[in-house]
Design goal:
By secondary structure, this protein is an all-alpha fold. The protein contains four helices and no strands. The chain starts with 22 loop residues before the first helix and ends with a helix.
Length: 101
């Protein structure tokens, strides 16, 4: 009994594996990498600035005796934190890929 799942092999020995990126696609323009990373870092800063403002508002609520409202306000930071982390991961990945090519 064969262990093959696909009817047609996706690995073409004569032309190279389907898992390898052709060299012309692997090259990344250095200017594009720099512009992309700068844009991502600007977006990260923007989201963290918004999160800091929300943190200050939450702190003000708690300081005024409305700790439950302060916590409710602070929870709005979560989405901004997630987006900043995702942008940081993308910038890091782009940087690593550009250094390999």
């Amino acid at each position: 009994m064969s262990n093959k799942i696909a009817l047609v092999s996706l690995d073409f020995a004569g032309k190279g594996s389907m898992c390898v990126v052709p060299k012309e696609l692997a090259m990344i323009d250095a200017q594009l990498v720099e512009t992309t990373i700068k844009t991502y870092l600007t977006e990260i800063r923007s989201r963290l600035d918004k999160a800091a403002g929300i943190g200050r508002a939450a702190d003000a609520c708690a300081g005024a005796g409305f700790h439950e409202k302060g916590l409710e306000v602070a929870l709005d930071i979560e989405q901004l934190r997630y987006e900043a982390t995702t942008l940081l991961n993308a910038a890091s990945l782009i940087n690593r890929i550009s250094q390999q090519s």
